[in-house]
Q: What sequence folds into this?
């Protein structure tokens, strides 16, 4: 009877070990066939979510920068439109010569002359207007302060004026006087004619 009990006990142990082995094999199979692949997919999904969150943050920043650039562009276009409206449609050299006119009542200047040079085309990417400049060669003699005042009047006028060259020398006949030679031009725009 003792042998029978130990035989039954061994049989139960073998069954328990076999059941434990089957359960361990099933657990290992479940881990390698189900849990591990799902864990890998979940890890890859987390990496993709992180990447997408990073990209969406970049997109928000890019959209914000784009909006700022649109505002800046419209601001600059408004400034350009205002400046283009200020550009006259004719050369109007008389306004420049008026600005160049020197006061002679205080003896500050003795003479000045203006010689108009050929009109030059300015290359500007605008299909609606042709931009041109009217160059002028100016010769003056007088006190330095008077010549400088004339130049300042020209540059502060409502015209777009550019000083191209300037040469000032002391007068040979009078040490208080200077002789100034300069070129300047003024911008004007005409409508494109086809």
A:
């Amino acid at each position: 009877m003792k042998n029978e009990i130990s035989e039954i006990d061994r049989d139960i142990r073998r069954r328990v070990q076999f059941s434990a082995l089957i359960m361990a094999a099933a657990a290992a199979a479940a881990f390698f066939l189900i849990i591990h692949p799902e864990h890998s997919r979940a890890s890859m999904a987390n990496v993709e979510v992180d990447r997408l969150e990073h990209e969406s943050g970049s997109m928000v920043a890019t959209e914000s920068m784009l909006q700022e650039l649109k505002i800046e562009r419209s601001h600059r276009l408004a400034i350009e439109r205002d400046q283009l409206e200020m550009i006259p449609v004719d050369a109007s050299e008389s306004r420049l010569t008026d600005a160049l006119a020197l006061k002679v009542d205080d003896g500050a200047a003795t003479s000045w002359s203006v010689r108009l040079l050929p009109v030059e085309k300015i290359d500007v990417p605008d299909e609606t207007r042709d931009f041109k400049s009217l160059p002028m060669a100016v010769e003056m003699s007088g006190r330095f302060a008077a010549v400088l005042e004339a130049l300042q009047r020209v540059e502060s006028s409502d015209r777009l004026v550019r000083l191209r060259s300037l040469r000032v020398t002391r007068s040979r006949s009078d040490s208080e006087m200077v002789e100034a030679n300069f070129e300047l031009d003024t911008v004007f725009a005409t409508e494109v004619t086809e």
